[in-house]
Amino acid sequence: MLQRRLEEILEAIWTAEEKGDRSAKQVQKDARFQLEEPWLEELKARDLIEIRPDGIHLTLQGREEARQILRRHRLAERLLHDVLGMEAEEAEGDACEFEHAVVPEVTDSICTLLGHPRVCPHGSPIPEGKCCREARQMVERAVVPLSQLDSGEAASIAYINTRKHTRLHKLVAFGLCPGVQIRLHQKSPSFVIQYDETQLALEPEVAADIFVWRSPEG
User: Fold this and answer.
1) What is the pTM of this model?
2) Model pLDDT, residue 55
């Protein structure tokens, strides 16, 4: 695993590249700390970066490392903003801690919980993960909004896709997370679902934000 400072430099290079400026000056600005020559030499020795006349470039291996770091960081921002209600700027600092400590399996679980978001609270793109690609393929085949179930039909929650962080926070607090088995009891005037020992009434627009796997036995 890369040292934290090296990860932060790779992140800064990616961010600078997103702005269309690979210059050392821009990387320095995005890193927000003084770039030391030994760190750059270490990244070069690991075949993660190349220093060229027009700036600092990521190698294929370096690009993948940076992609994973940015993915963790921006998913952490979404988690802190959408679920915990933190302001985007406030979430930035805690997201920096998160990105250096979380393993890929946990990252994918968080991504799934959040409904595979495409952008962070600042509007920057979140690099796609394996779970995103698999989810997209699954959705195309078998995942439907809860609102499309028939009364009496059983299903399991695949993910929740909403831009309203208060709504996501409430649904998670109610225990509606990916994998939870539910059964739809009624569809009008509200959607009533049963899971574990709980019955919960949902407004139609909320039910449309919950995506489920249909149970084979119905």
Assistant:
1) 0.61
2) 93
